[in-house]
């Protein structure tokens, strides 16, 4: 049974209180609280209609809880995402997080609100009629 969308967002909002920085050879490699701040900012946008997930240091969105399934059996991964780094903050990218050659940087900021607004602009018309089984045409490029 798929998890309720509100519950998924609630779990992501509290992640910065639960996640501890990872260590490599005793050195702290991550400032954990910036994911929670980003999630709270994105949830306050129109993107709260999408399902959040992470892949390594990237905050991503999908059009359903089955975004991870391939092809017509599953949903789609949004064509924009936010990478997080301790040094530069939030890096907003246009494109699929799993296809590096098809991505382009759009914004670098330490402000989670600015990153959320940029992500919202990139995904304003997503998902469109190009969803599997919808009979729609090709998606517009960003």
Count of DSSP H/I helices: 4
Helix residue percentage: 10-25%
Question: What is the terminal-to-terminal distance?
Answer: 33 Å
List how many beta strands DSSP finds.
7
Radius of gyration: 15 Å
Major beta sheet, specifics?
5 strands, antiparallel
The secondary structure category is: alpha+beta
Overall pLDDT level = 78
Query: What percent of residues are in strands?
Result: 15-25%
Low-confidence blocks of residues: 131-142
Name the shape in a single word.
Answer: globular
H/E element sequence: HHEEHEEEEEH
Q: Can you list the strand order of the major beta sheet? A: 3-4-5-6-7
How would you characterize this protein structure?
It contains four helices and seven strands. By secondary structure, it is an alpha+beta fold. Strands 3-4-5-6-7 form a five-stranded antiparallel β-sheet. The longest helix has 11 residues, at 33-43. 25% of the residues are buried.
Considering the chains and any ligands shown, give keywords for the structure:
142 residues; alpha+beta; 5-stranded antiparallel β-sheet; two-stranded antiparallel ribbon; disordered C terminus
Please render the helix and strand layout as text.
Blueprint (H helix, E strand, L loop, with lengths): L4 H9 L1 H4 L4 E2 L2 E2 L4 H11 L7 E5 L2 E5 L17 E6 L3 E6 L9 E6 L2 H11 L20
Antiparallel strand pairs: 1-2, 3-4, 4-5, 5-6, 6-7
